[in-house]
From TrEMBL:
<dbReference type="Pfam" id="PF00583">
    <property type="entry name" value="Acetyltransf_1"/>
</dbReference>
<keyword id="KW-0012">Acyltransferase</keyword>
<keyword id="KW-0808">Transferase</keyword>
<dbReference type="InterPro" id="IPR016181">
    <property type="entry name" value="Acyl_CoA_acyltransferase"/>
</dbReference>
<dbReference type="InterPro" id="IPR000182">
    <property type="entry name" value="GNAT_dom"/>
</dbReference>
<dbReference type="GO" id="GO:0016746">
    <property type="term" value="F:acyltransferase activity"/>
</dbReference>
<feature type="domain" description="N-acetyltransferase">
    <location>
        <begin position="2"/>
        <end position="169"/>
    </location>
</feature>
<protein>
    <submittedName>
        <fullName>GNAT family N-acetyltransferase</fullName>
        <ecNumber>2.3.1.-</ecNumber>
    </submittedName>
</protein>
<dbReference type="InterPro" id="IPR050832">
    <property type="entry name" value="Bact_Acetyltransf"/>
</dbReference>
Length: 178
């Protein structure tokens, strides 16, 4: 049976492993969300995931099947310019063997619902590496839209990996209903 739950400290190693497997290295090439051609190194680490779990208004959601971690994502409440709350969705990762089977779609819907219902978000936002056109299109088919805003990639901070090119940046997406 597949279920959704909030991660705890005991889940940190499994979350780090899943995120790495989904985005980096040869294992990530089994799915379509790989960043292996853009970045080497880690996508996250135990300290970063632990910090997400300990931050106010921040959760890591897990989608499991009979205790096996299939997907995860981070959802966080951030102050919005209008005084409301922005629900930031990030670190969306799906086991490469489960990509294309609706797992990511189910996780994203749960993250959006959590941001609205539990965090009171009036806006939903995420950032995606601009060069990830296929992934951006996938989000757009699920109601996310480009805002026109771009943010710099954190070059020199190996917590986010080692870039294989010098033109990386993030595009900001907002959900049409948020």
């Amino acid at each position: 049976m597949t279920g959704l739950r909030t991660a705890t400290g005991a889940d940190v190693p499994a979350v780090v492993a899943l995120v790495q497997q989904a985005y980096r290295g040869e294992a990530s090439r089994a799915g379509w969300t790989t960043e292996a051609d853009l970045l080497d190194g880690q996508r996250t680490d135990a300290a970063a995931v632990t910090a997400l779990l300990g931050a106010p208004g921040s959760v890591v959601l897990l989608l499991e099947d009979d205790g096996r971690l299939l997907a995860c994502c981070h959802v966080e409440a951030r102050p919005a310019a209008d005084g409301g709350t922005t629900g930031y969705v990030g670190m969306v990762a799906v086991d490469p063997a489960r990509q294309g089977a609706g797992t990511g779609r189910a996780l994203l819907a749960a993250a959006q619902a959590h941001a609205r219902d539990a965090l009171g978000a009036t806006r939903l936002e995420m950032t995606v590496i601009a060069q990830r056109a296929e992934l951006i299109s996938w989000y757009e088919r699920r109601g996310w839209r480009r805002t026109g805003e771009r943010r710099p990639f954190p070059y020199g901070d190996e917590r986010f990996g080692r870039p294989r090119r010098d033109d990386l940046e993030f595009v900001v997406l907002a959900h049409a209903d948020g």
